[in-house]
Amino acid sequence: MPYPLAPIASPTRRSLLATALALPWMGLASSVHAQDSVLKICQSTALTGPLGDLGSAMHQGAKAAFAAANARGGVLGRKIELVTLDDGYDIPRALTNVDKFLADPDCFALFNCMGTPMVGAMMPKVLESGLPFFAPFTGAQLSRIAGARNVFNIRASYADEADKAVQHLATIGIRRIAVVYQNNAFGKEVFDSARQAIAEAKLPAALNATVENDSSDAASAAAKLAEGNPEAVLIGLAGKPALEFVKAFRPLRKGVTLYALSVLGTSANIKALGPDAIGMAVSQVVPLPTNTIVPVVREFQQALKTLGAATEASHLALEGYINARVFIEALQRAGRNPTRAAFIDATWSLKKWDLGGFEINASTPERNASRFVELTLVTRDGRFMR
After folding, report:
1. Residues 270, 365 share a domain
2. Which of 14, 68, 114, 342 could form a disulfide with 45 if both were Cys (CB 3.0 to 4.6 A apart)?
3. Angstrom distances, CA of residue 28 to CA of 131, 132, 187
4. φ and ψ at residue 350, rounded to 5 degrees
5. For the whole model, what pTM was predicted?
6. Quick one: average pLDDT of 350-364?
């Protein structure tokens, strides 16, 4: 039967929590109505638009994992069908996509939906439906809600990434840290996390500036921060705003190290920045995708090759692959004829599970199942190194 839809709103954290604690679990007890041999999972992500390269890379990585599983006969005899709709990193389109998925009784789960603004807008509907919401692509706290057992976050949070960068800077003696952040839910979450980490490290309050989504004020933000003479700049920007800020800031303060979050760490972004990217530090939430010493990286590279995808072995493609592998493991644990409730229970059984060098440790819904964060540097040839 179709899942009831909540009205589109901008809920408070308290209202989300109240909804989460009143999930309609009885509706989840029935087995999925899809064909016995196929299990359908649904994804709204950006395949085009300002962050289309991010969404496409993750999508290809996930496809590679599911294709590999299907080639081996599926999960307990059931193959996985990933149905993906492009939302162009646009909230109304993402909500339209989710409405379609929630109205489809064969949609077993929502998988790896992308973007802090989009995920935030989806949350009331997701919580109302109780449908499994697996590995949303956001590091924001808005998807990490106590009691919301149907929401399973994997990637390290923006707070985890900001903490890592600030701890590193404090360790090497950097005190004057500036923060530039996007004027949306994503950027504000990064700034709040960075501000808290800076305070905990007993460093001076950060000079800060915002950039609009259309990047129209990137140059003025760069000038403002350059005037403050920072020793390092933490970048809470994604897509075009990040590129425009870096290009504007570099000529003003050539010796200042820039620290970006994982959302900036795509080859397309690094290529677009050219020489301005050299020496930039980028936090990553999965291992180096070229480090074949790590078993899951070897398996990822083989799966990507077998798929024949044009996508290179990037951090984001590896993240999509890892998300799919974790989904497959939870589905295996849910049994031969899984209900959604059994699948949700299975996700929370993933405690200290080693996926070939990447640990999944589910604890509570308000915490992500991975805390993996490492800093990488952009080399002269545009590659990442640890």
Report:
1. no
2. 114
3. 7, 9, 35
4. -80, 80
5. 0.87
6. 97
